[in-house]
Specification:
- By secondary structure, the chain is α/β, with parallel strands linked by helices.
- Helix content is about 35%, strand content about 20%.
- The strands form three sheets. The chain has a seven-stranded mixed β-sheet with strand order 1-2-4-3-5-13-6. A four-stranded antiparallel β-sheet has the order 9-10-8-11, with helices on one face.
């Protein structure tokens, strides 16, 4: 990195924001908002960006193609969480932009000088998890920042990611005169359930990005505690989230012949999908995560809801698995005189999110500036709808990398006692800053 002195100045400035980052993360954690609920979160992000002097901010509907959003909750739920957000401190001036499930923010910092266009994705949604409230075993409960919204918890670090995005904008604005090109930060809703990204990628906002990055919390590597950044060339598993609604006919349990038992149909569906034979086109996963069914002990069940997902290690494996799953659902329901409706609640394609050469570039850079990073290896497969953004950037010749920020975890991600150490958050901002400075140095060298 040629502009090492500038990086050191930015890193020192970022360190002065550590206490703010801690407090902001804990505030977002306390007011956790899950997919399409993130009204309060978005208003706080916009208010912060405007106070920094960011002028190019897209809010709500400006960030989406409305019909391409996935897995929206019912309107009555969206109305309720909007009112809740206002009660919990959402900024009224900005809240209307984020009504009705339009909970995204896109910020562009234009230095006014020629240079690369660099994009950053940070996701902002919480999970549908009931957070532990026992102060004896859970620090957020002990220190008073456990979620006050029952059934919504930042159990995967997205409160950290949102904070990193906000602090990154702060650092870039503070040193704007010494930078070149454009810096873009997208605050994405609904990553959990792979719901939020697809509706954002076709608006044109991503079309000029040369370098795209995302960052995610991960547990530190005990064998290499010096490594605060971790990069694995990532290939997103193809993923499809389904809600299945089975409808039968209720009757008295003493005369079951008068009804159509949706509970039996549901059991047949579950057994059937778990029995799908695997195919040679790629590894696959099936999981039924939740069943809601029945109205009473002595009533033949007339309705159920099955919450499930399928994943494929290749796109071909998902394309094999999905119609097989849909056939089983339809015919298992019909076998018991019931009907089944399938609603797709989220999906992501099987595509690489990393350009290997760019992953190596960033890993070397992390080591150069003292953050420490592993040597990126072969592709690994998990699911994240950042895949849509990476794919969009790669389509026009850009490159992408999905990075991880290491911190001690109190429990695995998605656990009710999940927590991280906020002292590691500045390292994420430093990594984003180092990438921007180095890429700008490269651009200057090639174009001047």
């Amino acid at each position: 990195m040629k502009s090492r002195e500038l990086y050191e100045q930015m890193a020192a400035y970022i360190d002065t924001k550590a206490e703010w980052m801690k407090n902001n993360r804990q505030d977002l954690h306390k007011h956790a908002e899950s997919a399409w609920h993130e009204v309060r979160t978005c208003t706080l992000i916009v208010d912060y960006l405007k106070k920094l002097g960011v002028t190019d901010i897209k809010m709500g509907k400006e960030c989406f193609i409305a019909d391409e959003r996935m897995g929206l909750p019912p309107q009555e739920e969206l109305d309720a969480v909007y009112e809740r957000a206002l009660e919990q401190g959402a900024i009224p001036e900005y809240a209307p932009y984020f009504k009705d499930g339009f909970t995204g923010v896109e910020a562009t910092i234009d230095t006014g000088k020629p240079g690369p266009v660099i994009g950053y994705r940070v996701d902002i949604d919480a999970l549908g998890v009931i957070e532990c409230q026992d102060p004896a075993v859970h620090r957020p409960a002990r220190e008073g920042f456990a979620s006050i919204n029952e059934g919504e918890m930042h159990a995967c670090g997205h409160d950290c990611h949102a904070t990193i995005g906000m602090a990154t904008a702060d650092a870039f604005m503070h040193f704007k005169d010494q930078l070149c090109g454009k810096l873009k930060i997208v605050f994405q809703p609904g990553e959990e359930g792979v719901r939020g990204a697809r509706g954002m990628v076709n608006t044109g906002w991503f079309d000029d990005i040369d370098y795209m990055m995302a960052i995610h919390m991960r547990p530190e590597t005990k064998d290499h505690p010096e490594q605060r950044i971790h990069i694995e060339n990532k290939n997103c598993m193809a993923n499809c989230k389904m809600d299945v609604y089975v409808t039968g006919k209720a009757c008295h349990a003493a005369s079951p012949q008068n009804g159509n038992n949706a509970m039996l149909a549901t059991a047949a569906i579950i057994q059937g999908v778990y029995g799908i034979p695997r195919a040679s086109v790629g590894d696959a996963r099936i999981n039924v995560g939740q069943v809601i069914a029945g109205t009473g002990r002595n009533v033949v069940c007339d309705r159920s809801k099955i919450v499930m997902e399928i994943r494929g290690l290749t796109q071909e494996s998902l394309e094999y698995l999905r119609p097989y799953t849909e056939r089983i659902i339809e015919h298992a329901a019909a076998m018991h005189g019931c009907t089944a409706e399938i609603k797709i609640m989220g999906a992501t394609p099987c595509v690489p999110t990393d350009t290997p050469e760019f992953s190596k570039y960033l890993a070397d850079l992390a080591n150069e500036v003292g953050l420490g990073c592993n040597e990126p290896g072969a592709f690994v497969s998990t699911s994240d709808d950042y895949a849509y953004m990476a794919q969009k950037v790669m389509e026009h010749g850009g490159v992408s990398c999905y990075m991880n920020l290491c911190s001690p975890f109190s429990a695995p991600g998605h656990a009710v006692t999940y927590d991280i150490e906020e002292k590691d958050l500045p390292n994420g901002v430093k990594m984003y800053a180092a990438a921007a400075i180095s890429l700008m140095d490269d651009w200057k060298e090639k174009n001047q």
